[in-house]
Amino acid sequence: MAQRATLNSVAEAAAVSRQTVSNVINSPELVSPDTRERVLEAIDRLGYRPSTAARQLRTARSQIIGLRIAPVGNGVSGVVLDQFLHSLTATAEEYDHRIMLFTAADDEAETRAYADLIASVGVDGFVLTHTHHDDLRTRWLKERELPFVTFGRPWGAENTHGWVDVDGARGTRLATEHLARQGHRRIAFVGWPAGSETGDDRRAGWEAGLAAAGLADRPQIPVFDGVEGGRSAAARLLDEPVAPTAFVCASDSLALGVVGELRERGLRPGADASVIGFDDTPTAAVLGLSSVAQPIAEVAAECVRQLRATLRGTAGAEPTSTLLAPRLVLRTT
């Protein structure tokens, strides 16, 4: 029977110290790329598998990260959080962490779940989504000095915790400026009612794009997310004396509704009127809908990096904030 590979045997095979092998596994950023590659090759060749149980005993950590699963929405754009969960899980597993999912009806219930998970499982930290003004969850975690990072900015508050987000305003501005360059002078915005932090951010990008193009006319209809909401908004805008020739939407769900209403009226999306959504969902790709794509894999990787830095106590005196740029994906609409 072949002897089980150990930390020492990997170190010998890679001609490095035992500590270097440990750093490659636990803190790869401390090791040079060439050395890291040599150690990883030895790990793969010898079939070495770090002992999670031994690490937990040594570090007094569970290697578990908690994440609340949000309620199912009424649009197709919820798939973005599915993509985030998949990327977060895959990235966490690279560092031998596991994601523990749980549900909660609201923020208060979520904080109760935090307390239960810390007491029963010993969860190391949390990743939060759907941040908003006066967020009870971040305040609860900060008061108890518990490690966490958010996918979403601390809206309307000082940057007192680590966060990762996508620049939604930049995305809608890219879309609006592209449409203006194509000759559109009446570009409508279909978004959510005021008060939605993410929605307001995306609306601000549309407004900035119009201003940059010298366009003062700002037709917009606020509706709740979903295909029917987009269809309703498009119907009202198209019934105006001077109808828009282009639509920038806060989500792909809304954009699909706009496309449906255009076709219902015998108008050709992309020819008679242009439509750009937000989130670049698989549905958008299949149906040829132009959209703004979020770098979800990068968001997940940065969330894991920040949380690991906090757990190791190397995050620095100031919390880390990361705002990632989206990109415009042009298709037939």
TrEMBL record:
Q: Where is the secretion signal located?
A: none
Note the InterPro entries from the entry: HTH_LacI (IPR000843), LacI/GalR-like_sensor (IPR046335), Lambda_DNA-bd_dom_sf (IPR010982), Peripla_BP_I (IPR028082)
Sorted keywords for this record are:
DNA-binding, Transcription, Transcription regulation
**Domain HTH lacI-type as annotated: residue spans:** 5-59
Offer an example of a GO molecular function term for this protein: DNA binding
Going by the entry's taxonomy, the superkingdom of the source organism is recorded as Bacteria
What Pfam family does this protein match (any one)? Peripla_BP_3
Which protein is depicted?
A: LacI family DNA-binding transcriptional regulator
Organism source for this protein? Amycolatopsis rhabdoformis
Q: What is the lineage of its organism?
A: Bacteria, Bacillati, Actinomycetota, Actinomycetes, Pseudonocardiales
